[in-house]
Specification:
By secondary structure, the protein is an alpha/beta fold. It is 20% helix and 31% strand. The chain contains 2 helices and 5 strands, in the order E-H-E-H-E-E-E. Strands 3-2-4-1-5 form a 5-stranded mixed sheet, with helices on one face. The longest helix is centred in the N-terminal third of the chain and has 18 residues.
């Protein structure tokens, strides 16, 4: 088994509607999948940096983390750079966590198009 060290874990998910409930549901799903696949507990997580595409402004995705009980985790949200032709309706996250194994990045829904190398 590898030593415990800080690693960055990436993930993204598509959101079909710019509605608070949809953003929070999708973000929660993404975070739960990242936690499951990487065998993480809330106490392993140091911070999470969320970005959303400019078309998603109905909710802060960090709220989904708080609803999952991430009370001691540093959270930050920002808007992605609006690159022409980029995929709309996407929430991205970069999580810093203590892990014993290499990170497994998670891309769900249309966001899987962002990382065809992970298929």
């Amino acid at each position: 088994m590898e030593e415990l060290r800080v690693r960055g874990i990436r993930g993204a998910i598509s959101v079909e509607k710019n509605e608070a409930g949809e953003i929070l549901r999708s973000t929660g799903q993404l975070l739960q999948e990242i936690m499951k696949i990487n065998q993480l507990e809330e106490s392993d997580i140091i911070s999470a940096f969320f970005t959303v595409t400019p078309d998603l402004n109905a909710a802060f995705p960090a709220e989904a983390a708080r609803r999952l009980g991430w009370k001691e985790v540093a959270l930050l949200c920002a808007t992605e750079i609006p690159v022409p032709g980029s995929l709309p309706g996407i929430v991205r996250v970069l999580i810093h966590a203590y892990c014993k194994t290499p990170p497994q990045h998670v891309y769900l829904g249309r966001a899987a198009l962002l990382r065809p190398d992970l298929e």
